């Protein structure tokens, strides 16, 4: 009986350690993300001080913008790259795809237990705002799909200016999630209105 007690105590201690470690990871990640937002906002207020702001937050050396979800009242920094290390700092931009606001399919990725944990609350018609050094781009969600992690053609190239958001699914899955949750949004407003007009012209063909 004493042996079982020791085993159960050990299991409880390990489980408690995992919980505290996870909480620590989430907390430290949120600090980095908030710092990234502050750095980006500083660049918008005073572009000349960008280098100084980045020096104050060296983890955001690949900071390229900010994404805002008005419907769920969330905003996150966008960093260049989609590795695990990149995604600890915010939403990752896949540099192999067109830059947000450009014609084509711009791809952003995020962790389901991090920046994209509430992605499932978005609905068709919701607005998604992306800020970059080129200006502010407004998108409107048009669809979402759930596919296997092994699906290779879920994200397709496009002539239109669209935005694709990707995260793992199910959101509450413990371990390596087997699926991917993918949102597609169309560009509806841009500093360069010709981009939107061109996208509309192509869509009407």
UniProtKB/TrEMBL annotation:
<dbReference type="InterPro" id="IPR041999">
    <property type="entry name" value="Sortase_D_1"/>
</dbReference>
<dbReference type="InterPro" id="IPR005754">
    <property type="entry name" value="Sortase"/>
</dbReference>
<dbReference type="Pfam" id="PF04203">
    <property type="entry name" value="Sortase"/>
</dbReference>
<keyword id="KW-0472">Membrane</keyword>
<dbReference type="InterPro" id="IPR023365">
    <property type="entry name" value="Sortase_dom-sf"/>
</dbReference>
<keyword id="KW-0812">Transmembrane</keyword>
<keyword id="KW-1133">Transmembrane helix</keyword>
<protein>
    <submittedName>
        <fullName>Class D sortase</fullName>
    </submittedName>
</protein>
<keyword id="KW-0378">Hydrolase</keyword>
<feature type="transmembrane region" description="Helical">
    <location>
        <begin position="6"/>
        <end position="24"/>
    </location>
</feature>
């Amino acid at each position: 009986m004493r042996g079982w007690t020791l085993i159960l105590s050990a299991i409880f201690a390990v489980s408690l350690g995992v919980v505290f470690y996870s909480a620590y990871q989430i907390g430290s990640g949120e600090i980095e993300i908030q710092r990234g937002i502050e750095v980006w906002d500083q660049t918008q207020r005073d572009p000349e001080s960008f280098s100084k702001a980045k020096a104050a937050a060296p983890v955001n050396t690949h900071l390229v913008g900010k994404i805002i979800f008005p419907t769920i009242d969330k905003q996150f920094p966008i960093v260049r790259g989609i590795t695990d290390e990149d995604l600890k700092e915010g939403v990752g931009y896949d540099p192999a795809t067109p830059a947000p606001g450009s014609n084509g399919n711009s791809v952003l990725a995020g962790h389901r237990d991090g920046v994209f944990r509430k992605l499932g609350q978005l609905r068709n018609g919701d607005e998604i705002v992306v800020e970059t050094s080129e200006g502010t781009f407004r998108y409107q969600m048009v669809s979402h799909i759930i596919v296997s992690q092994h699906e290779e053609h879920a994200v397709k190239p496009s002539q239109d200016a669209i935005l694709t958001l990707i995260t793992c699914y199910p959101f509450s899955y413990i371990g390596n999630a087997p699926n991917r949750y993918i949102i597609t949004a169309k560009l509806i407003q841009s500093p360069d209105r010709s981009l939107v007009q061109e996208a509309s012209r192509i869509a009407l063909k």
